[in-house]
Design goal:
With 261 residues, this protein is of the alpha/beta class. The chain folds into 2 domains: 164 residues, 3-Layer(aba) Sandwich (Rossmann fold); 66 residues, no CATH class. Helices cover 36% and strands 17% of the residues. It is built from 9 helices and 13 strands. α1 links the parallel β1 and β2. α3 runs parallel beside α4. The longest helix has 16 residues. The protein is globular and about 55 Å long. The protein starts with a strand and ends in a 6-residue tail after the last helix.
Amino acid sequence: MRLLVTGATGLLGSELLRLADHELIPAYHSQPIAGGVRLDVRRRSEVFEVLRAVRPDGIIHTAYRQDDWTATADGAVNVALAADGRRLVFVSTDAVFGGRPTPYTEDEPPCPITPYGAAKAAAETAIRAIVPDAVIARTSLIVGSDGRSAEERRVHRAATGQGGAFYTENIRCPIHVTDLASALLELLESDASGVAHVAGPEPLSRLQLGRLIAARDGLDPSQLPSIPGDLSHIHLDTTRTTQQLKTRLRPPAEFLAVLSR
């Protein structure tokens, strides 16, 4: 399969490139990558031009900007329109939900309360109409092993006195970038369609996650400042999706376990 990965220089995009056993075409916006093609998903004509030139069999669309509706929502629509029958996996987010004590299933409609969540929800709706057999993969906080993820950087800044605090009630379902990338590639190669929840099985607060990252990286977890508030509890129910996957989605307590030094 000839595979186009958008956002290829990001944390998830680069992991997809590392794992994929396909002919790969990485698409980037501002940071060039070897063998890649420049792509501004906000420009519809450019998206069509690139896909005509590259002629991929499949697309995994990871590119977005949290503060840019055009990049996140319109960009996803442009990719879907240009897909023209190609296999499409769109990476969405748990932020399409507003938060509640009970888990959200794949069948529940979005109810975002943030501009970013609204942009992703709009993209989901458009993609389902344009490419009915696409996979819409909702995920949660993505964590790596080399300090590149946003959560790891936040922890390192806070633990070294550079500012920042961690909510005690903001509950999410963190996932390791390798597990997520592996699951996305598996979904790409399957006959799955519609919404899939691809997140970790262990709901944690931002503070709990931060402490695990700090301990793994040899920092003092007690140095992470905590803050109450932000009562959003966004727990993705992954039961249906994990039954279809061979990839095991590990809990943070496992992938952030402290190794013997």
